[in-house]
Specification:
With 68 residues, the protein is of the alpha+beta class. It has one helix at residues 18-36, and strands at residues 7-11, 39-44, 49-55, 63-67. A four-stranded mixed β-sheet has the order 1-3-2-4. A hairpin with a 4-residue loop joins β2 (39-44) and β3.
């Protein structure tokens, strides 16, 4: 049985902070990904909206980006 994962939603307001905000979100879910032995999936929903979370579809110790 797989427990629910938490997703962090990011809305980028300032392009200058884009990378810092994404890196902070990835760092936040890293411990959860390690304990679940899953990878991290960063999903771009639009130019300013992203979600970051663990995913069983991504190899352990890997971060993958997906654009919708």
């Amino acid at each position: 049985m797989q427990s629910e994962q938490s997703l962090i939603e990011i809305n980028i307001g300032n392009p200058a902070t884009f990378h810092d905000e994404l890196e902070a979100a990835v760092a936040t879910v890293q411990a959860e990904a390690t304990s679940r032995r899953q990878g991290i999936l960063v999903t771009r929903h639009s130019y300013t909206r992203f979600t970051v979370g663990t995913s069983h579809e991504v190899l352990f110790r890997t971060t993958m980006e997906r654009c919708l």
